[in-house]
Write a structure and sequence with these properties.
Chain lengths: ~100, ~475, ~625, ~180
């Protein structure tokens, strides 16, 4: 139970990081933090409910996170080559 | 004979032919004419078959299991009549209009959409056809239209799409509020919505169908749509066929939400009557043929709408008959105007005069169609107009009187324009009908005469359906 | 009454002529189209007479439109009309072969002519109101085509259009009248309506009299349009724009008599509705007076005759209004003879003068045209009502019946009869007497034109003897023959003395007016008219400004409003576009939220997530 | 909670704060590794040993190292680069994060666990294997995830392939393309 609270706090810290960081890499790091918070919650639930399925899902989350990091970092590198920056405030293509 | 198969073939043949033509334009006009011709023959075959058996066709296949949506086609007398009108007019248009070959492909695509609208027996399927037909219509306008085509296309798209959204909502509302097990017409009609829901459902349909009727004041897209389309009249003829609002009211909106219809009946009668006389009046001031025909069409649909909304069987029969007949003669007029425009290089009324001298056969052909349009008895425009009047009188004598002053105005604007172009002292010599145009002319004149002199051919098929609707609405025969 | 397919054949013959001549007429040598057309009309006439002699015929097709049959009936009434239409029509056809000689549109002309006859026959034979309406509009179309026959001239096109549009006003009345009958009786078959409304010649009990009166009135509006009664009379004089045989056909055999026929055919509607009948009498009287007054000032030889038709149609309407339906038909018949004769002798004069139509440039034709002068004289005297000629008998019968209805009506109509005699003499004097005032070399028409006129002259002389008043101890053929099929009230016969008095008064008035006219208008030929009469003629020439009033009060306002509305209609579109721009502005405000900063969007996400979870946990 | 657990929790939160606040990206990444290692320890305590091992190998060993590579490749160790275009976001970020912490904490404390939870078998591969590879359970999901990894690998290669990167000007906007089509 208490680990759930820790997970919630970790998640919030990660969210804070996403908002406050200005370079793409660090935003990304913060997102990883949030993912781990979610994993922690899953494992804690698994323990409480005695269910192995939650652990399996955690494994999937880790695998998908790996894929996400591969693509995400690729994107960051590609953008850096065109824009010479990793600052996300300078990427405003979505402006309406 | 497996008529159901004919129905499916007839529906999708134009689509396939149209796609083929878009990919390989070198197939040429002959191919398009052949495809349209076969489609017309199939429709005629189906029609002849129904004459013998006295019943329509139906076929259904479950398409989307979770929402119980069917690929369901059904052709009763009304559907058969409209299939004939659509396929005949498309054939005429494809045969006569001088356009880039790819445009013929778009026209054929549009034909499938139109046939689908009249055949669909599942509301979702109907919606799909109803909306899909918009695409070729827009593309024809956008790709081949006149100088202001993008503005016209934008207006047209806006009106249509604004109508479509409430309709989509109504499509789902009518099933789930009415408690029907599927989207099939029969199921929906057996479980009509009632109460306040009926009002809202009908309103949803109303907006979409009024745009396509077109009913005042939602007719505003039409004049620029016609004026900006390709001068050959192909797109105008197809656009005329797309004025399916009356049919949609008849088949879907009214039977699915009769209580809603009852709420709006007075307003609808008023709008129909006002639109009829208003558009006829405006047509008098039109300075080019296409706008004239556009307003004339609005006026006639107003008369038809008056008949339909009267809720009496004769009025309903008249409205549907008028719808089918006007498809042929208005479409034919647009095509003839296209032929004239190619000769005189203008669509304006006034600069060119007296061409009856050099082109007598062309003038006779035009006169024929103009007379059909203004409802001369013996031609195809009359039976529908007349039955609509008989029905409308029962519902509201005063509105009928007001609306039908449009027949006086029709004579005025149509003959004035005719006189300006064909009569008075000639200032231009133009070639008379080519052999190809003779074939076209004979076909359209023969059909107009046949339908006008022997309306029984269609009325005996559609009147029972109208009577069923009138019974549903509680009106007498 | 036999069921026979031969009945529609009466109509199909001229229709066939229309189609054949329209399609292939151009390839025929000149007289052939005329001969074909005339022969077909003669065929219709013979067929009609034969069928009538066999006691009439009917033919029908059920459910032509739902509940409405396509049916035809040939009885005594429609038989009489078939004889007039096809018989007189045939003579006019023959005449036209000569008159239209050398015209570029010779075959087109006869094609339209046959269409006219066919449409009129549909109108006459139809036993179902919509079928009658088919013919009703068909004659409208044919008259439109024929009035605008020489369409290269703008005026002709305008006149044709005017005729069609004004007729359409009446047609709307007809249409709406059918609407009333359909709503109340559920049938539009004339024989069924007759059974429903007046079985056994008496008005059925329990009818909705208001609806009946409305239907009767609306159909009467239709008749007003077609028969050019006031206020829809403006098209008829302009219809003179067509070739002369067209005028003869419109005025004598077809078209304008249709309104009278419609009233007689549907007399079961009118015979017991005094209110509507009163309106018919009133309109008829006004038209008779108006037509007669207008005839005095005309300078066009055909327009004089045209206004006389207007006036005579007024007589027929008065007859129908007072309930003397057979008399109305009687006058239709005699009028057909002498009016066709008048037009065709006018045509001969025009032909002789190389197209000149202005009576001020005529005169003295008595010396040039030895046959036409007889035709003209008989026609004018018959129109003027010289005793013993056909026009006298029918007009006298109308006067007698209107005396019974009201002495006021009788007196007014007597005045109109006197005026008729005056202007018919004016026509005759200006054209035939005095010295020739033009510069052409008049020559008599070919025999193909004079022979039809010979026949018509005989008719104008003797046709009246089929309907003599009862006081002349000789059989009246027409009255019982027609009354067999016309629903009507039996009239009390006037006492013998009164009847004789009326006959003698009208004879004296006619003779006196004819003589006075003969003297008076020789002064006009010489240009020595009293000043008041000249002023009167100026107003009369312009038809007492009816056209100007209509143009100023109706046509012009309608046109300008149309222009205004046309531009305003773009306003409707603009209105919708304004709605669109409101939406656009709102959307623009929302679009400001799209800053493009990723972190800004993430913040939004966070806020939304917090709120959503909050909602989730609180529930 | 035992002392070890409290210590672990404190370490977790502390390292997380370093991750989101450090001004040097390398420091942040290293703090993240520390965070992951502690989490792995916690997993062992929660009977998830296989997951703990995976966590160390994949996350701490591979993913974060990848981050470090990229940071060094792009010389992007400086965290506060460029101008802060949204300086006003700091306060909402703190407030939002606190709010999120609040609602999440409230949410997770509302669960009541079943009284007799089953045993997890220590979360060893022997226990997880049958679940992962049985068709009734997670086999297909596993296959899909494997395929996803393959696709992601290819995508990463394609994305950074130098020739694939097109200068900005050549790409037309969709509206321009439509206009051209219409004019044709």
């Amino acid at each position: 139970m208490s680990w759930l609270v820790v997970s919630a706090l970790l998640f919030a810290i990660g969210a804070y990081g996403v908002l406050s960081r200005r370079t793409a890499i660090l935003v990304f790091l913060s997102i990883e933090l949030m993912l781990n918070a979610a994993n922690l919650a899953l494992i804690a639930f698994a323990k409480q409910w005695g269910s192995l399925d939650a652990q399996v899902v955690t494994l999937f989350v880790i695998a998908i996170a790996a894929a996400e990091v591969a693509v995400g970092l690729g994107l960051i590198v590609a953008i850096f080559r065109r824009r010479e920056t990793t600052g996300i405030d300078e990427l405003r293509g979505l402006k309406g | 004979m497996n008529y159901d198969a004919l129905m499916h073939v007839g529906l999708f043949l134009p689509l396939l032919a149209g796609i083929a033509l878009l990919i390989w334009p070198s197939l040429g006009r002959t191919f398009a004419v052949a495809a349209a011709g076969v489609t017309f023959l199939l429709a005629a075959w189906l029609f002849a078959g129904a004459q013998g058996e006295g019943a329509g066709y139906a076929s259904q296949t479950l398409l989307l299991e979770p929402i119980q949506m069917y690929y369901a086609l059904g052709l009763d007398g009304v559907g058969l009549m409209l299939w004939l009108a659509v396929s005949f007019t498309t054939l005429l248009a494809v045969y006569i209009a001088q356009v880039p070959i790819r445009m013929l492909g778009w026209a054929l695509l549009m034909e499938t959409g139109l046939l689908g609208i009249f055949a669909a027996a599942d509301l979702v399927l109907f919606y799909v056809f109803f909306e899909a037909t918009l695409i070729p219509a827009l593309l024809m306008l956008g790709l081949y239209g006149g100088r202001e085509r993008l503005k016209a296309a934008y207006t047209f798209a806006l009106f249509t799409l604004v109508g479509s959204l409430p309709m989509l909502a109504a499509v789902f509302a009518v099933r789930y509020l009415g408690g029907a097990p599927s989207f099939l017409h029969a199921d929906l009609a057996a479980n009509p919505v009632s109460g306040a829901a009926a009002t809202w459902v009908f309103l949803g349909f109303l907006v979409a169908f009024a745009v396509k009727t077109p009913l005042f004041p939602l007719h505003a897209w039409l004049p620029s749509f016609h004026a900006e389309n390709h001068p050959s009249g192909l797109a105008d003829a197809m656009g005329t066929l797309y004025k399916v609002g009356l049919f949609a009211f008849f088949k879907w909106a009214i039977p699915l939400a009769p209580e809603g219809f009852a709420q709006f009946q007075g307003l609808l009668l008023l709008l129909a009557a006002f639109g009829a006389i208003y558009a006829a009046w405006l047509a008098f001031a039109a300075r080019d043929w296409k706008r004239l025909l556009a307003y004339g069409g609005v006026s006639h649909m107003g008369l038809g709408a008056l008949g339909l909304f009267s809720g009496h069987a004769d009025g309903v029969t008249g409205a549907l008959f008028l719808l089918a007949a006007s498809m042929v003669y208005t479409g034919g007029l647009f095509l003839v105007v296209g032929r004239i425009a190619e000769r005189t290089e203008t669509l304006e009324i006034g600069p060119v005069r007296g061409i009856a001298k050099s082109a007598p056969a062309l003038s006779v052909l035009t006169m024929f169609l103009v007379m059909a349009m203004i409802g001369l008895p013996g031609l195809s425009g009359f039976p529908g107009e007349f039955m609509a009047l008989l029905g409308a009188w029962k519902a509201s004598p005063w509105l009928t009187f007001v609306a039908f002053t449009a027949v006086i105005a029709a004579a005025a604007y149509a003959l004035t324009a005719y006189q300006a172009l064909f009569q008075e002292s000639p200032n231009r010599t133009v070639p008379d009908l080519t052999p190809r145009e003779w074939v076209f002319g004979v076909a359209v004149v023969a059909s107009t005469l046949l339908v006008g002199l022997y309306p029984k051919m269609f009325t005996e098929l559609i009147h029972p359906v109208s009577e069923a609707l009138a019974k549903l609405l509680g009106g007498g025969a | 009454m036999q069921e026979t397919i031969l009945l529609p054949l009466i109509i199909l013959l001229p229709l066939l002529g229309f189609a054949v001549l329209g399609l292939w007429g151009k390839r025929m040598q000149e007289p052939t189209p005329g001969i074909v057309a005339s022969a077909l009309v003669l065929g219709s006439f013979v067929l009609g007479v034969v069928l009538l002699a066999q006691g009439g015929a009917r033919w029908g097709l059920e459910d032509w439109l739902p509940g409405i049959p396509l049916s035809f009936a040939l009885d005594n009434l429609s038989g009489l009309m078939v004889m007039i239409v096809a018989g007189i029509g045939f003579l006019i056809h023959v005449y036209a072969i000569g008159y239209m000689h050398g015209d570029a549109g010779f075959s087109r002309f006869f094609s339209y002519f046959n269409l006219f006859i066919a449409a009129m026959l549909v109108l006459v034979l139809g036993d179902s109101l919509p079928v009658v309406f088919v013919g009703w509009e068909g004659v409208g179309l044919a008259s439109y085509l024929l009035i605008g026959f020489w369409y290269a001239d703008r005026v002709n096109g305008d006149s044709a259009r005017k005729a069609f549009i004004v007729n359409r006003i009446g047609d709307l009345g007809f249409l709406l009248g059918m609407g009333v009958l359909w709503a109340n009786f559920g049938t539009l078959s004339i024989s069924e309506l007759r059974e429903a409304i007046a079985p056994e010649g008496e008005l059925a009990v329990g009818l909705n009299n208001a609806a009946l009166a409305l239907a009767a009135f609306l159909l009467f509006v239709g008749a007003i349009g077609k028969s050019a009664q006031v206020p829809l009379m403006v098209w008829l004089p302009d219809a003179m724009a067509g070739p002369t045989p067209v005028s003869a056909l419109i005025h004598a055999a077809t078209m304008v008599t249709a309104g009278v026929y419609l009233l007689c055919r549907n007399s079961f509607l009118y015979f017991d509705l005094p209110d509507v009948s009163f309106w018919i009498v009133l309109i008829g009287m006004i038209t008779a007076v108006y037509g007669a007054l207008c005839a005095f000032g005309q300078t066009d030889i055909k327009r004089i005759v045209a206004y006389s038709t207007l006036s005579q149609l007024g007589f027929m309407f008065v007859a129908a209004g007072v309930g003397a339906y057979w008399v109305a038909m009687f006058h239709v018949m005699t009028h057909a003879f002498f009016k066709a004769l008048l037009f065709m002798s006018s045509g001969s004069v025009i032909h002789a003068l190389g197209g000149e139509q202005d009576v001020r440039k005529m005169g003295g034709m008595w010396n040039y045209l030895p046959q036409t002068r007889i035709h003209g004289l008989v026609g004018a005297l018959a129109l003027g009502g010289l005793p013993l000629l056909s026009g006298f008998w029918s007009k006298d019968a109308i006067l007698a019946y209107s005396y019974e209805y009201s002495p006021v009506v009788w007196f007014v109509m007597l005045l109109v009869a006197a005026m008729t005699a005056l202007y018919s003499m004016r026509w005759f004097v200006l054209v035939f007497l005095g010295k020739y005032r033009g510069h052409e070399h008049p020559h008599e028409s070919p025999s193909v034109m004079t022979w039809p006129n010979h026949v018509l002259t005989l008719g104008s002389l003797f046709a009246g003897f089929v309907g003599l008043p009862y006081v002349i101890q000789y059989k009246n053929f027409l009255e019982p023959w027609l009354n067999k099929v016309i629903v009507h009230h039996e009239h009390e016969k006037l006492p013998v003395l009164e009847e004789w008095t009326l006959i003698l008064v009208s004879a004296a008035v006619a003779v006196g007016a004819l003589y006075y006219g003969y003297r008076f208008f020789q002064a006009e030929a010489a240009g020595r008219l009293p000043a008041w009469f000249v002023r009167f003629q100026e107003a009369s020439l312009r038809s007492f400004y009816a056209d100007d009033v209509y143009n100023a009060l109706i046509v012009k306002p309608l046109k300008s409003v149309a222009k205004i509305l046309f531009d305003a209609d773009n306003g409707v579109l603009t209105g919708f576009q304004w709605l669109g721009s409101v939406t656009g502005t709102l959307g623009g405000l929302l679009a400001r939220l799209e800053t493009g900063y990723l972190r800004f969007y993430a913040a939004g996400l966070l806020v939304a997530a917090v709120l959503l979870i909050l909602v989730g946990v609180i529930r | 909670m035992s002392f070890a657990e409290l210590l672990a929790a404190a370490l977790l939160l502390l390292s997380a704060l370093v991750v989101v606040r450090a001004s040097n990206a390398v420091h942040a990444a290293l703090a993240l590794i520390a965070n992951f290692l502690v989490i792995a320890g916690v997993y062992v305590g929660l009977e998830a040993r296989f997951v703990a091992m995976t966590q160390i190998i994949v996350y701490a060993g591979a993913i974060v190292v990848l981050f470090l590579f990229v940071i060094m490749l792009l010389s992007a160790a400086q965290a506060n680069v460029g101008k802060d275009m949204l300086p006003g976001l700091q306060v909402p970020a703190v407030v939002g994060a606190l709010g999120l912490a609040g609602v999440l904490t409230y949410a997770v404390t509302r669960f009541t666990a079943p009284p007799n939870p089953g045993t997890l078998g220590g979360g060893l591969p022997q226990a997880l294997g049958p679940l992962l590879y049985s068709p009734e359970k997670w086999l297909y999901a596993l296959l899909v995830v494997g395929f996803l990894l393959l696709v992601a690998t290819i995508a990463a290669v394609v994305l950074v392939e130098p020739e694939r990167i097109v200068p900005e000007k050549v790409i037309k906007s969709a509206s321009e393309e439509l206009k051209e089509m219409v004019e044709r």
